[in-house]
Amino acid sequence: MKTTALTALAEPNRLRIVELLNVTACSVGEIAEKLVLRQPQVSKHLKILSEAGWVAVRPEAQKRIYELKPERFSELDGWLEAFRRLWEARYDRLDALLDSQKGEES
User: Fold this and answer.
1) How far out from the chain centre does Cα 96 lie?
2) Which of 60, 75, 81, 97 is the most buried (most CB within 10 A)?
3) 59: domain range?
């Protein structure tokens, strides 16, 4: 079963992994140690994050180093921008309504 992009981030341990990888690229062992998780559990989460396009892996000697894919987060930011504009417009209308009500009270 393929996990959707946002579903992949919804799981708390995966979100913690993303937050850690936002600071530095890490191996599975480093992630497990820093987040106090078992390696198989971390590997499972990294597989899901990788399939959803949030992380990339690169070989480094005998290790596999995981890092975030910044372009994926740019896509998410672009998608969220439409919602930001919608809510800003709603807040602007609310401000206008409150201002008009203040004027009526005066």
Assistant:
1) 34
2) 75
3) 5-68
Query: What pLDDT digit, counting tens, does each position of 50-103 carry?
Result: 999 999 999 999 999 999 998 888 888 888 888 888 888 889 899 888 888 887
The C-alpha angle with vertex 50 and arms to 52 and 35, in degrees rounded to 5, equals: 115
CATH of the domain at 49: 1.10.10.10
> Structure pTM?
0.75
- Same domain for 9 and 56? yes
